[in-house]
Amino acid sequence: MATVAPYGSWRSPIAPADVARGGRRLGGATIAADGAVWWAEGRPAEGGRSALMRRPAGGEPEEVTPAGANVRTRVHEYGGGAWKLLGPELVVYVDFADQRAYRLELGGSPVAITPEPEEPAGLRYADFELHPDGATLYCVREIHDGGAEPENQVVSLPLDGSKPPQVIAAGHDFYSSPRVSPDGLWLSFVCWDHPNMPWDGTELWVTPVRDPGAARPLAGGPREAVFAPSWDSQDRLRFASDRDGWWNLYRTITDLGAPDAAEDLPALEQLTAERADLGHPQWLFTMQTHAELEDGTIVVIRTEDATERLAALDRSGGAVRDLGLPFTAFGAPSITARGGRVAFAAATPAKQPEVVVVDVASGAVETIRTTSEETVDPRLVAEPRAIAYPTGDGDTAHAFYYPPTNPEFVGPEGERPPLIVVSHGGPTSHVTPALDHEFLFWTSRGFGVVDVNYRGSSGFGRAYRDKLQGTWGIVDTEDCVAAARFLAETGEVDGRRLAIRGGSAGGYATLCALVFHDEFAAGASYYGVADAEALARDTHKFESRYLDGLIGPYPERADLYRERSPIHYVERLGSPVILFQGLEDEIVPPNQAETMVAAMAANGIPHAYLAFEGEQHGFRRSETEIRCLEAELYFYGRILGFEPADELQPVEIAS
Questions:
Q1: Positive/negative CA dihedral, 242, 246, 249, 251
Q2: If you classify domain 3-15+377-640 with CATH, what class do you get?
Q3: In Å, how far from its chain's centre is CA 481?
Q4: Exposed/middle/buried for 647, CB within 10 Å: 0-12, 13-18, 19+?
């Protein structure tokens, strides 16, 4: 029989070390011509480094990159697109240490193919594409030379590194997705300018490979977000665009023809008319939500109400059909195809992310790599439930609720569990229903967890995404508060023991909720924004004008930035807060947390602060993750009034 024990004090087999150890981060996968599958793998236990992996057909996973290599680019700071498979035994990748590009043949040693910069890590590369000639690479380069802000370009370089990179496109603030047509005649790329983010408005350009100066726009604009261009087997250019309010697929009706004869670019046709998104916010390079099979079928990641499913569009067109697979969360999505198979990393509500290969015709799924070799007792898995609930201005917001789940325990009769409200980062992103060890850490101890897709989240169409324009710090916070209130009023949780946590933009919503609202008894901010004005002044180029849309132009509307900055209203804070911060964070610098801590100390507000050397924006080291979970649990126990079953290192709670 289950033991009766207060919620929060349940003994759980899921320890903080299990969460960190089980956190192998799996990136997008590619199938080589010889049947081997390649992918990138982040390893918290090795300082968060990313290794390039390969599993030969019928073999076992093996690391391809040398010991200690860290496959990661810092272009846009968030990176992505740090490697590209060029042949069955040939790959190019960026090493985090110096940001140079390296060519690596299987079994050999890496060879640098980009010059050593004058400034350490001053020349950064991402998003590689190989010309059909097999000798020329295209990629995005970001130059850090001490200027007012970095310069972004599309460049070409010889695969053997015999010449320095040559500029193909420059002049716009940002570039991504250089892609070459199969006939080798055309290059396409995406570009955009301040103050737009890539989900606000981008342009898709094409240029003759032999004459980059003749580049012309094909699609997009300041209010149309073009995403993930890809050439098909007939030299037609396919891409996602949200011009009709949803990210649907479009394609040139014909190929672009010979550059010398191409006076007019071909017209476009709309391939899908879904009221769902077939694209994503482009936070990272090489995100790809559509791929073509050898029979012309297009496989897509379809996102409806923040649930991601694998679907297909037959060559004859028509509706997008769900493939009936269990996957609901593709992370930073990347799918690739070879023959009739697709490869990707994805999770389900019952399983953490796996690298898998799917035979689309048969539906057969082959697991290539799991997040962890250790399995979770299915009785401990909290099943997410989608909820829609009323929020500010008579609107509706969305979330996934994970109830307390542990077969060994039940709560006392009449007692309701404490609730942790999770506010995601971005803020332009979304959360999906998937097994998450970190959530299980809480639910198996007797907490309810609600993962909020506040207004402004992606995965619900452009109109929902745009509801955060001009309202950041208001509607996202309202929706977190409303989620907690909804679950308390429906009797799911204890309305007196509500906590809120989040990282980055989610940390900002956490601090805003605690300062400007009274519902929460405690909060945990991970590298969260406390001073929106300081963020506008100090952050990196990619996001330096992001707040123009989320709040207003700066410095013209500095008054709005101050009004929405928790740091200026600490005297309103009535609930204790624990803050976690990486000391090498370039996106939300440590001075944000340090200023908040000083203000709380001056105002006598209970708080705790943990800072970590060597950590950046988003913690990568297992020892950091372990310490954070233990500290947060200890903090909640002290504040919410329960005794954790775990033996925890105390945290100093100052006041």
A1: negative
A2: alpha beta
A3: 24
A4: exposed
pLDDT (0 to 100) of residue 262: 61
What is the distance between the alpha carbons of residues 499 and 531, in angstroms, rounded to a whole number? 21
Q: What is the Cα–Cα distance from 453 to 397, expressed in whole angstroms?
A: 7
- Which class is domain 26-282? mainly beta
Main-chain dihedrals φ then ψ at residue 305, nearest 5 degrees: 50, 40
Q: What's the pLDDT at 607?
A: 96
Q: What is the signed CA dihedral for 112, 118, 121, 122, rounded to 10 degrees? A: -120
User: Three-class SS of residue 124?
Assistant: strand
Distance CA 42, CA 62 (A): 14
Helix/strand/coil percent split, the chain, to 5: 20, 35, 50
Q: Are 290 and 333 a contacting pair, CB within 8 Å?
A: no
Query: What whole-number distance in Å separates Cα of residue 650 and Cα of residue 629?
Result: 12
- Structural contact between residues 355 and 29, judged by C-beta atoms closer than 8 angstroms: yes
With b for 16 or more beta-carbon neighbours within 10 A and e for fewer, the 358-383 pattern comes to bebeeeeeeebbbbeeeebeeebbbe
CA distance 453 to 399: 5
3-state secondary structure of 354: strand
Q: Where do the domains of the chain lie?
A: 3-15+377-640, 26-282
DSSP 95: B
Segment 421-433, tens digit of pLDDT: 999 999 999 999 9
CA-CA-CA-CA dihedral for 302, 307, 310, 316, to nearest 10: -30
pLDDT tens, residue by residue, 265-312 = 999 999 999 999 999 999 999 999 999 999 999 999 999 999 999 999
The pLDDT value given to residue 22: 62
d(CA 547, CA 536): 7
- Contact between 494 and 488 under an 8 Å Cβ cutoff? The reply is yes
What's the one-letter identity of residue 210? R
**Dihedral angle of Cα 80, 85, 91, 94, to the nearest 10 degrees:** -10
Which residues, given as ranges, of the chain have pLDDT below 70?
Answer: 21-23, 261-262
pLDDT of residue 261: 64
The SS3 call for residue 83 is strand
